[in-house]
Amino acid sequence: MTEYRITKHPILDIPDRPALNFTWKGAPMTGYEGEMISSALFANGIRVFGHHHKDDSPQGIFCANGQCAQCMVVADGLAVKSCMTPLNDGMAVEQMDGLPRIPSADQIPTTANIPVKEVEVLIIGGGPAGLSAAIELGQLGVNTLIVDDKDRLGGKLVLQTHKFFGSVKDSHAGTRGFEIGRILQDELLTLSSVEVWLNTTAVAVFSDHIVGVEKDNRYHKIKPRKLLVATGAREKMLSFPGNTLPGVYGAGAFQTLVNRDLVRSSEKVLIVGGGNVGLIAGYHAIQADIAVVALIEALPQVGGYKVHADKLKRLGVPIYISHTVVSANGTDKVESVTIARLDDNWNVMPDTHKTFAVDTVLIAVGLAEVNEFYLKARQWGMDVYCAGDAQEIAEASAAMFTGRIEGRKIAQTLNIEVGQIPQEWDSKATILKSKPGPETRRRPPEKTDGVFPIFHCYQEVPCNPCTSVCPVGAVKTQEDKITGLPYMVDIDACTGCASCLAVCPGLSVTMVDFREDPSHPLVTLPYEVWREKVEIGQNVPVTDLDGAILGYFPVEKVSSRRKYPGTLLVQLKVHKDVAKSAVGIWVQEKQIEPSTIYEKEPPPDEAIVCRCERVTAGEIRNIIRSDIRDLNQIKALTRAGMGACGSKTCRPMIWRIFQEEGIDLKSVTDRVDRPLFVEVPIGVFAGAD
What's the pTM? Predict the structure, then answer.
């Protein structure tokens, strides 16, 4: 099991956890107490969890977030989602081959009398938005219940090892995501009026304003006066041949395995999508000692923050813009992936195919709001609110503000004296949601003596922690805006403390010190990967902003700041001609090249659109071309959207096929959503154990 465990990490502590024994298909295995079954299987080298009843295709993990049913297994005789079910000592886990057995009539329990719990406010979702709203309400003494389907609070913050953007005062800028989650959780747990239910899945909102939840395999009815939906987002998927092979999964699933469960899930990955999610996932992979062979983006530029892309380039990750994934290749799991260049009309260009030997393809092509609870509650006339990604896809720092705002709004409707919601909250939330600005390259300072920082961030993003930590107040942003580019108001005032380097979320500040040797100045670079690669005396490859190697230079000193222990400050002696261009340290010593050239583009009609029912893009196209414009009719004819996930994955792709076929989307009837948004065993509704 050790082979697939992360036993050291440059940022995360490795906890000491009690080991448990379980079996997989009768074979003895070892996992950890509290670990999800899926992670324990991955840690034991298991990637195929079962086979689909329709075509015997291999099934494995996909979302790791309870949104799909790809990872279903049979545990102690019950069909369960392995990513949401904790391991028990002695548990017998089997493949989900075929369909679960339907119980006979005499095995179905009679319905139990389930009482209704009334609360002032129910919050669905314990991520940054839900926590921030609960804190606001708790501070006002409002009777609040917050439910979350995970075993801990924090949502996606739990998965984030990087430092956050924004400002120090308002959104904990410069602090790592998982640490922000702990800060918010600790604050919440001091508030006596807030009750927390973990391992609790909201499953439906009903017309009588009851919210049904499943907690520890028990069904509960909750009737809130006010409902806040802070359920976050789910990842979008692409349709390409091989897209359902075990080894193709969302970046969130990857981060769950690597950063939450400390499972080394891969050897080599290719990332599809150049937004912040994909860029950050690549960085997390390298921190887990997983090779990133490439990141591809269909647009002619990455959509995420440039500083995130620059970090990957400096570590040795090639980024292919205007490229798409053509196919994932393998029999029972991913063995390689083929990509190709796109022309200006988004068509694959002949003779541009490249195939990489990988075991994992991470899909990070955008997020969709998990807002079905909000829409259904609004349909039933409930007093419902929405915050975070469920309201609008944005960064977690923005979600904290929208949570605070919606919490205050709810308090106002309860006639609690809270005063006006500060106008600056709305303004800051809007700024934190803003897209990155265009690249603006700046010349480094002309100065060739003393010590001073160089700011290598050339794109306006909402971030200014460097202005908060400078002990002499010498760092400002243009026009004093949070999105302004940083600069030194008095470069001679710099003391060389390197606080701005240590706090910078983008690792885009360096320090040049000419005081000791003007011909070979000392350059300090922020670094968050492997300590053994930068030991004192080693010659390390130093890169410029774009990842080009400037030369190999000796490490003179490695240090860190007590407040930012995960960020190493690596001091090197370099030649004066490259000192101001030195930005990063190359980690992937040799760029990983494509192994073969893929000559033939597979027919796109083979690609699976509906993962649950194995419906292909070709089947959907044929239906659309027969003049059907109703997703409900498509569901009836093909079963697309009828599976366990409730069309969470296929619905956006079906809409996309309509668009690709030139259909006016206004002429298309959307599917009717049923009250149950998560599959629930019938016995749970009956109150059975």
Answer: 0.90
